Amino acid sequence: MDYNIVVAVISLLISAASLGYTIIKNRKTDVLRMKVEKVQLDVLQASKLYNNVKEVKREFEKSLSTLVVLNNGELTEKQDLNVAFLDAYNKYTDFYNEINDYCIMVNIGAINAEDYIKNTIAVNLSKYAKMQYETFSCLQGIASQNQFKSISKPDYDAFKDYDAFLKKYNGENSVFWMNLKTERRNAGFE
Length: 190
Fold this sequence. Notes:
- By secondary structure, this protein is mostly helical.
- The protein has helices at 2-72, 78-107, 114-145, 160-170, 175-186.
- It has one domain (35-186).
- It has five helices and no strands.
- Helix 1 (2-72) runs parallel beside helix 3 (114-145) and helix 2 (78-107) packs across helix 4.
- The termini are far apart.
- The mean pLDDT is 83.
């Protein structure tokens, strides 16, 4: 009889140990699952907010295209060209303000999807930084060519969050950042 009790106790201990092990593993799995879900939600949030930037970019590019076509047209009325110019300038301003707002969210940690930002967003926003001063020069050229009031360069710290983002993801002493600063100055942007 003692043998049956020992076998029962051993079976009970094995079952209890197995149950304890399963509970611990499930907790670890749940913690890991929550971390994965949080990362996925962070990436989805970052992507959703970045869609706002892309939408404003599309509006800006459409407006700029209209301006370029009208500026190259020989029969374009001055008033139509001026309206297109002001629209393109306003959409240009909206686009870069939207980028700056996105960068604020990243810089303060409200958007936390580091790999996604580093590998996708930072690449695009770096390209847009070059496009920013090039478009500024283009708009200045169109204003001068048509005797419109020239556009003024942005305030010194108007894009400080965008610049902080660019420095963080490209390096403050990087060739990219140094070239960007030089080209901005050459374009009269800074």
